[in-house]
Amino acid sequence: SDSHFPVPLFPSQFDYSLHYPHFFPASSEHDSSKRIQFADIGCGFGGLLVSLSTLFPDTLMIGMEIRDKVTEYVKERILGLRATNPGQYQNISVVRTNSMKYIPNYFGKGQLRKMFFLFPDPHFKEKNHRRRVISPHLLDEYAYALAEGGIIYTITDVEELGEWMKGCLEDHPMFEVLGDEELEADPVVKLLSSATEEGQKVARNGGQTFRAIYRRITP
Ligand code: SAM
Question: Is there a catalytic annotation at residue 121?
Answer without folding.
Answer: yes
